Amino acid sequence: MLDTLIEGAQVVLPQGTFQTGLGIQDGRIAFIGDDPPKARTRLKADQLVLLPGAVDLHVHFSEPGRGHWEGWAHGSRAALAGGVTTVVDMPLNAVPATVNPDAFALKRGLGEQKSVVDFALWGGLIDDNLSELGALHRCGVTGFKAFMLDTADASFPYVPDGLLIDGMQQIAALDAVLAVHAENTALIAHRTARLRAAGQDDARAWLTAHDELQELDAVRRALLFARHSGCDLHLVHLSTPEAVDAVLNAQRDAQAVTSEVCAHHLLLTDQDFVQGGAEFKCAPPLRSRQATDGLWEQVLAGQVNVLASDHSPCPGEDKAVSDIWRAWGGINGVQVLLPLLLSEGVLARGLPLHELARMLCHAPAVRAGIAHRKGSLKVGLDADLVLASLRAPWTLRADDLQSRHPHSAYVGHRFGAQVLSVYQRGVQTVSNGRLTRETLRMGEWLPPVKAPASAGIR
User: Fold this and answer.
1) In the list 142, 314, 413, 422, which could disulfide-bond 430, CB 3.0-4.6 Å?
2) Which residues have C-beta within 8 Å of that of residue 210, sequence separation ≥ 6?
3) Where are the transmembrane segments (predicted)?
4) Residue 434: beta bridge partners?
5) Within 10 Å of residue 319's Cβ, how many Cβ atoms?
């Protein structure tokens, strides 16, 4: 007998969307079909869509060390409220950064104590930890993350080109993946110095320093270095169609590489940044409406591999500065990731639901090495489920945010779709859009079962 049977919803399966039943037993999906066995609980979900819980491959919860920025407890609740049931936390912003086994153990322990969603962890490649990469890999990191851009953070220095190649060669030997933030730090530093010397400290100055040219140059160099070293590459938060095209061309040449586009680059533009100020600051920055539309064309054509949030919140005072160079660069976004993509993709542009699920759920799970448990509605996988309405317009208020500091570039935005219910390993933890705190459960750390590979990620 099933524990729970969900009936009447449009169920988003890998091959398409179907009105059928889905059954849960012992925390796993036990049945999908039209002739279900008996169930202790039967839930009617007419007029709703049933999706896999989203897997956000790119979040910064900033704990240990900077938990006052967000932390596992608040960040994971924000994720859960938005239908993200699994996160993969980046190695930086935490102090110590996740660049050696001790730091990994500390972050894993905090996640297991505080997170209410399941999670995996990226390790870091920085300027002095090549000797730690093998040990980090054995700890069970999803992969490694490196910056081609100077982070201005002593706990996570960027990696110059020569060291980047050395790191890629070592990561290739581990049969692991390297995620890269691709921006040209030399070009940016040169432009920044000139702009600051001229007294320019507003959003337009940030956009000038971080223009599209420098990003495309860094993407192309990362691709060249990865091809030379044989390293499996994941390029994060690509912000221009030209950058995605560079990845597509490499994929056509059979290079092991995947692309990631973040929700803020699909909705917000450079004009939002100019008008709204530091709340909209990120790197790479928001681009023109033309670039945003071009990215959507690539998403709709199935040319983007992964959609993510790059959730990176901070205390309000770190945004409330007039000097754009000193303002924190990051957007609070994990809680609206799924509603935004349902609204702007499915409703506004006709993106098929199963294609959204591929980019937001399945492909990130494959990339993280956890697709044996997460990312799809298949019998045997964890019953991480989202029931959403595509007929429930709402406007985000600061009070809706579960983050430690309830401010976001998305506050005031009107969404057309809403997450109503979330199940985690078969237990309902969101009901009517609200966390059911009495049933919240501790998240599990998810080690990869094998080296994540770009092969098979369309």
Assistant:
1) 422
2) 183, 188, 283, 284, 285
3) none
4) 431
5) 21
